[in-house]
Specification:
The chain is α+β, with helices and mostly antiparallel strands. It folds into 2 domains: about 5-45, 3-Layer(aba) Sandwich (YefM-like fold); about 55-80, no CATH class. Helices cover about 40% and strands about 15% of the residues. It has helices spanning about 10-15, 20-25, 55-60, 70-80, and strands at about 5-10, 30-35, 40-45. The chain has a 3-stranded mixed beta sheet. Strand 2 (about 30-35) and strand 3 (about 40-45) form a beta hairpin. The longest helix has 11 residues, at about 70-80. The chain is elongated.
Length: about 90
């Protein structure tokens, strides 16, 4: 249940209904907190990072051909504008 635009709530609403509001944030809702009618804060859900163990990553790439480092850096050099890095 994600709304397209943040719902505005007052500082008092946040204080009085913090549990329900935080549960809504956990479910993807976003809120703008106002004080005296002016926006002062935004409550947004945190992006959860998914940890993948190193052993699992290595297993995923175990059957791939080895990386040719020289070819990789040559391809990278031809693809990236080196002027972006500055002098």
């Amino acid at each position: 249940m994600t709304s397209s635009s943040p719902q505005e709530i007052t500082q008092r609403e946040l204080r009085n209904d913090s549990g329900a509001i935080l549960r809504a944030v956990e479910h993807g809702e976003t809120f703008v907190v106002t004080r005296n009618g002016s926006p002062v804060a935004e409550l947004v859900p945190l992006r959860r990072r998914t940890f993948v163990p190193a052993a699992q990553v290595l297993a995923m790439f175990a059957h791939e051909p080895p990386l040719d480092a020289d070819r990789f850096f040559t391809d990278l050099d031809t693809s990236v504008d080196q002027q972006l890095l500055g002098d």
